[in-house]
Amino acid sequence: MNLPPGKFKRISAERLREFSGDCLKAAGMKPDHAEQLAVLLTNGDLRGVRSHGTRQVPGYCRNLRDDMVNPDPDIRVVKETDTSVLIDGDGGLGYAPMMMATDQAIEKVRDRGLAAGAVCHIGHYGSAGHYVRRAMEEGCFAFSVQGAHPVFQDGGDRPSSAYWGNPPMCFGLPGEVEPSLVLDGGTTLMADYQGEELQELIPAAFFKSIGLTGVSTALGGAFVGMNNARAAEVGARWPAARLGGMILVVDIGLFAPAREFRDGVDHLVRGVRETMAPVRGYDEATVPGTIESRKEGEYRQDGVPVGLEDLALLNQTAADLDLPPLA
Q1: Same domain, 155 and 267
Q2: How do residues 137-159 score in pLDDT, each as one tens digit?
Q3: Cα(174)–Cα(187) distance, rounded to whole angstroms?
């Protein structure tokens, strides 16, 4: 979850969804893809994940209008087994093909217990939590990540390996009555603005970042088919579509009864909250996913706090597309 904006205007989730869908369609996206994406971005706002909510709309609209991503991709299955599916996103944004891969993996899980879905040749797929939460709705836990085939440049100043990427990743474990345990974020533990001196003070954090970034980049990149001629061809035609993604979906009742698993997650979440001290500087002890769940309930009722700077950018996007302003 991101910090809430300092200055904001509250806007209903329904209005955010409607506005986002209208902008994306006006920018050239397929209507069904635009409606789906508008829902997912609004869900991000509702959970307080501003970075992956409707503030993405201006950038996506620019990419669509500037031919950086394919507005009309031919999304198709290119490889399938009883427990896996690989989908070619044909240079479009990653949301529609990744959700397609997730839904097909969920169907396979019903008979097999676990399955993997993957997508290649896509643009940004947003928060990895979108796909993990979809699997959780169907009685599964899941892991998802987006990656790429990295490009390295010889010569010149050498960039720091501590900040060489920040691919999204998510683990999600559903509970019964407590908020689900959802670890959803980027792989970089320390941001570059926090100073190089921290690398010597807490090197373990940076080495963990390097490892998480490397594994995620490869699993969402080379593993799903982003290191080949087809990937280079799509990337040359659609420059913002050089990414891939994957999701692993597992039936929570694969080994122990599903109710035991859910009760176990509840026990963990409740135990941290009720018996452990908060992180220094915070008021309560929580696990990832709890605050997002709380915000979703609050924002559905009171409206999403949209930062004034974000609102200005969204309204400018609407003006560029000859649409009414958001608010």
Answers
A1: yes
A2: 999 999 999 999 998 888 778 88
A3: 22
